[in-house]
Amino acid sequence: MINKNSTIYIAGHNGMVGSAIWRVLSAKGYINLIGASSKELDLRKQKAVRDYIRKTKPDVIIDAAAKVGGILANNNFPYEFLMENMQIQNNLINEAHRLGIDKFIFLGSSCIYPKLAPQPLKEEYLLTAPLEPTNEWYALAKITGVKLCEAIRNEYEKDFVSLMPTNLYGTGDNFDLHSSHVLPAMIRKFHEAKENNNSVVTLWGSGRPMREFLFVDDMAEAVVFALENELPEHLYNIGTGEDLTIRDLANLVQKIVGHTGAVIWDDTKPDGTPRKLMDVSKMHNIGWKHQVKLEDGIQKTYNWFLQNIENFKQKAF
Ligand SMILES: NC(=O)c1ccc[n+]([C@@H]2O[C@H](COP(=O)([O-])OP(=O)(O)OC[C@H]3O[C@@H](n4cnc5c(N)ncnc54)[C@H](OP(=O)(O)O)[C@@H]3O)[C@@H](O)[C@H]2O)c1
Q: Which sites bind substrate (predicted)?
């Protein structure tokens, strides 16, 4: 059983999700957290991963490491997205299994579900229809990770479980407009427009698509739940189960940032999928639910943005 002295290896502990898991576990009194940056340990290298796990002897591994990116990056580097993600997760999952580790938490993404799956997305829709082509490389890698954990769980009765988060945002987010997700991009755009005498903000699309957002600390709490309990099934969606239009999201961000200028919706730009919402009833039924309201989460994210704005500027912000 896991306790506060257990050695917990968080792969990808410098990333947005991994650092939130580290923060939340530290705050709960877990004292033996370990991690290595990609410079110290390249997870694509099988022997290096084996040596690291042998040396550090973790009781549990949380895999929050991945090569992540948007549509453009997926389109331009399909081989890297498929291969590197499979290498990272295969090395971690396989070496954990071979070296006798009984508990493993694998993080994926809602893109594993078919493009035209009914909404809200249920876990049982996995592998029932074709994927969204723009990120199928990444999605396929993640699906193999889910299936590998399921196979080890079924065949060897180990507690290997996969958690699939919805869109995440929060502390440690990426505010680079070339690669950021919609919510941090809005925070930055509204903030800069406010500083610029409340100039006009132009946002992409019609504003009508509906999306779900989960504060990253809530995601970390879901990981803690999976750590402290043996979950009865192999795959769980993690989200709020609630969505809103992009237009309503923009109104909320604008209010929190304090921008009072006009907003233009550029509907020559693509909208993407009309709706993407997770069915989180399986997690609710076993006792986990998100805690942070969207408005509070955006406020916290904006506060963090303001505290770190100088660092972003140095990185060609
Ligand atoms: N952010 C979201 O909205 C979201 C939504 C759904 C699911 N997820 C999932 O959550 C997980 C983490 O995402 P994130 O947003 O935290 O990503 P992130 O901020 O880009 O962090 C990814 C981490 O992976 C590590 N990494 C990548 N390649 C590596 C390699 N070859 N060797 C060692 N480490 C490597 C990086 O380490 P270094 O920093 O040391 O280079 C980085 O810390 C992913 O599986 C992702 O699919 C995220």
A: 189, 204, 211, 271
Give CA separation, 43 vs 22, 63, 64, 205, in Å: 19, 11, 12, 38
Using alpha carbons, select from 106, 109, 175, 204 the residue that is nearest to residue 147.
106
The H or E element spanning position 188 is helix 182-195
Q: How far is the CA of 198 from the centre of ligand 1 (A)?
A: 34
197 Cα: distance to centroid of ligand 1 (angstroms): 36
Closest Cα to atom 33 of ligand 1: 38
Q: Considering the domain boundaries, does residue 264 fall inside one?
A: no
**Active-site positions?**
138
Domain count of the fold of the chain: 1
Share of the chain above pLDDT 70, in %: 98
φ, ψ for residue 207 (rounded to 5)? 85, 0
Residue 110 has pLDDT above 90, yes or no: yes
Would 314 be classed as within a structural domain?
no
Contact 193, 183 (CB under 8 A): no
Residue 294 Cβ < 6 Å to ligand 1: no
Report residue 70 as tokens.
């948007």
